[in-house]
Predict the 3D structure of the following.
Amino acid sequence: MNAVAHYTSAFAGSENGLPGSAVPWLVDKRRAAMAALASTGFPTTRDEAWRYTDVAQLLTVPFSPATSLATARAASLAESGGLTDAYRLVFVDGVYIAEASRLAGLPDGVVVTNLASALGSHSDRVRMAFGKLVDASRHGFAALNTAMASDGAFIAVPRGVRVEKPIEILSIASNQVQPVSTNLRNLVRVEANAEATVVEHYLGDGNAVSLTNSVTEASLAESACLAHVKIQREGQSAFHVATIACEQARNSRFYSCSAAAGGALARTEISSALLGEGADAQLFGAYVARGRQLVDHTTFLDHAVPQCTSNELYKGVLGDMSRGVFNGKVLVRKDAQKTAAFQSNRNVLLSDSAVVDTRPQLEIYADDVKCSHGATIGRLDDEALFYLRARGIERAAAQRILTQAFAGEVVHSIAHPAIRALVAGVVDDALNRALAGGVS
Amino acid sequence: MSSITPPNALAEADVQLDGDYKYGFVTNIASDVVPPGLSEDVIRHISGKKGEPEFMLAWRLKAFQRWKEMREPRWAHVTYPPIDYQGISYYAAPKQKEKLASLDEVDPELLATFEKLGIPLSEQKLLANVAVDAVFDSVSVATTFKAKLAEVGIIFCSFSDAVKNHPDLVRKYLGSVVPYSDNFFSALNSAVFSDGSFVYIPKGVRCPMELSTYFRINERNTGQFERTLIVADEGSYVSYLEGCTAPMRDENQLHAAVVELVALPGAIIKYSTVQNWYPGDKEGRGGIYNFVTKRGKCFERAKISWTQVETGSAITWKYPSVILQGDDSVGEFYSVAVTNNMQQADTGTKMLHLGKNTKSTIVSKGISAGKSSNAYRGQVLINQRATGARNHSQCDSLLIGDKCGAHTFPYIDVKNAASTVEHEASTSKIGEDQLFYLRQRGLSEEDAVSMIVNGFCKDVFRELPMEFAVEAQKLLAVSLEGSVG
């Protein structure tokens, strides 16, 4: 059975159990998404945006939603792996675990809840946000998520409120025998002059084959500020596809950092539409891969109005036979004068069998702009290594120092100290494992 | 960039965007034209007309079979109405009674055409020391300097002559770099190509002069399908110049050329192009569709350098590439692409690093004005075996006016750790402060802009041979006449 047919029948079987099965607009939306998936299918390497990321293997696995849950284990994993001082929503295999979540002490008016509950308590706001920025036509995985979303986070920060503590969305792929799929749909709204930090944290418990297919839609009102950090450290057999889309009103600021260390195939798509003057988007990413991992970051910045700024820095360290992919596109629309957009992708290859495919793209229709992009691919600097070794530092340690410093530029862009420390730990662990595979 | 809005310079910019095409005229020479349409019979007719040996016809027919199975590529950042391939006449030759021994025997009207284009064949021998193989529509009518080149064993002739006189060389190298099945347009070219140039430089010979061919589309409704093959044997050197102008037309004319370069071990080929086909009028009517496949193959220690100045054509779809097959080989690509009015260009290069310690350099300068669209698309591939490979790419775009587009689509694929690849790109407009500085020193706005644009393109122009550098700067000035402020 091919993948589309498999998910069509899975959808038919589970439709009534999905949240919002009594909400007509959502039922329509899910069915339309399934129809879109049936007509266009999943992306292939013939699609320009998926040229280097072949999901054929992923599609041979018959993933289905989890049937049993290890709740107790999830709670302990959340405690040991998550942020200590943060509000937290925990999902295991796409199912919300209230017992493991921690939402006490939220500032007045701030809503942090799971999507299924929000459908009841904040139905209008969910209806407005769901599918506004990522619709089923984007690609097969977005369609699948729209149709099968089992739950997700609903976060709303009211006007002028600053949420000090990070809000963590912790998704755990448990060690199931059957290949399990997780379809999380997260909706974030930050009102005018409000500020929040959201962490999407993906953990794997063991090495089971799993599919995480998440979609996050974030909307920033005037002068709002959202810091979004995504940490992906699932197991070596996990497949991971994440789509993060943001829209920004005037003078809003969007900071995004994606740290990717786990998964057999992990694709993260991040986009922002700069729709109001003075909006600023800062996108950072650090990825470390080894073995036969494939890590893909695809970004899209849509400069639709004048006077917006954006900056991107993605850095990768690739060992063994791993593959790093970067597709970055900056679109400057016709009237978006005075745009300043910078994009950079830097890669270090540790082995002769590792591969990097990078495609930084500029598409510009305005003339009074400053845009640039750059990409580099190389190996660890021999002279820097020699310098360190000449000072009595052994080779392995020198390599660790150099790669940590390389990735450090991205890690240090994270403002919140606890999140920065967590990401630094994840990246350093991954670097140590990648370096253990040998450096040529 | 300063934040001051220019006084009215930019507002005036597009008003003046009408530098007329200075080479638009039609020569009336009775032509031997095949009726429009493409079939096996037409191909047999072309091949028969040219008196080709059997292997050429077989090759053409294979290409035609393959072409029929292929679909026209759609990935380029250009839009145009569908081309009716059955509405094109695939062969036109100026009526010719017999082989001409000297220039005096050439149709005087034809000679006058070349005069207007600024190719004084008669004087070139003395003045420019350039041998010109002038292709008028599809058949070579005059070839000069043959004797001088023959002395050192260099073969420089029309493709038809090469097929007749040097079939072994043609057979060995034709399609060895661009196979007929390579892409839609190269397959079409392989099936129907009318003529072109053939160059062979023997071992260790340094070609004593720049070789040059002027192409020209003349016959109404006649697509031009040129085929150029240059083979530089071990340790030889050749610099080849290609330039073109075309008369003003209302209908779009298809131009699908193929250029193949073979640089055997230690050889150096320098290929320079100034492309100035008719770009269409201000509303985008007419103009040439320029869908070209250019590729070179480098063996050990060989070097191929492409330099191009692209100012013409309604649509340019062109990626001069280098296959760096041999160890220590070098590929270079220097390009200036100018688009104005409704022109569209999707151009760039491919550097395929297969051998060890191979090096490539890409310098691309795109200038867009009017409502045009100018895209750089380039691929750098470093294969696993190509250790020690090195690439540096720089792609800069200059935007003139707020209705044009400039795009950069690099594809970088690296498959080993012992290589270094760098890509840089920037997009900006002419700095107000630069303009102000020059104007303050008494330069007119036009001169100031021309100076800045020439400076922007300097890295590419200095790669051009002397004769072309002058023409290129002239072309740039004409193409952008009055369009900048």
